[in-house]
Amino acid sequence: MAKRSRASTRKKGKGIKTNKIKPRIAKAPAPSDGIPVVCSECYSDFLYVSASQSTSVACLACGHTGMVPESAEIQRLEMAKASEKKAFYTAVIPGVLFLIAGIYYFMQLNSAGSPDKLGAAMNYSLIGVTVVLFLVTIVFAARYEKARCEVYF
């Protein structure tokens, strides 16, 4: 008597495990609407759309023209703008938390009437949290300023 194959009784996809590993490919940020560009003649701002096929860039305000960089340079600029955006968000979050902590401290101080009535532990802990968040905000703001990328032509 022949053995019946087990595959015929199984439902497809159940019980069979495959160890296929999908390779992870580092992706560049998706091209946004454009790259902010500053004219070196009149210092006006406008967006350069990297999907355009033109070989020159012209300022809308003064008519100054410049050559379009190679695609590698445009990719580098898009990566720099993506890191600038990330640094901006990391600088804004502790700043907002600093403001919330400061407002909460002043509300608690106002409702208590004086620091003595608020209590030493509550008073110094709120002051400490506010000071630490202020220092973290300053550090991340400096990191954001270091990551800023302005494109002139």
Description:
- This protein is mainly alpha-helical and 153 residues long.
- It has a domain at 83-147.
- Helices cover 48% and strands 10% of the residues.
- The protein has three helices and five strands.
- The strands form two sheets. The protein has a three-stranded mixed beta sheet with strand order 2-1-5. Strands 3-4 form a two-stranded antiparallel ribbon.
- A hairpin with a 6-residue loop joins strand 3 and strand 4.
- The chain starts with 34 loop residues before the first strand and ends with a strand.
How is this fold's topology laid out?
Elements: E1 35-38, E2 45-48, E3 56-58, E4 65-67, H1 71-112, H2 115-118, H3 120-147, E5 151-152
Helix pairs in contact: 1-3
Mean pLDDT: 80
- Please describe the biggest sheet, giving its number of strands, its sense, and whether it closes into a barrel: 3 strands, mixed
Shape: elongated
Strand content: 5-15%
Radius of gyration: 28 Å
Low-pLDDT runs: none
List the helices and strands in order: EEEEHHHE
Assign a percent range to the helix content.
40-55%
Number of helices: 3
- What class would the helix/strand composition place it in? mainly alpha
Distance between the termini: 83 Å
The overall strand count is: 5
Q: Enumerate the strands of the largest sheet in spatial order, edge to edge or round the barrel.
A: 2-1-5
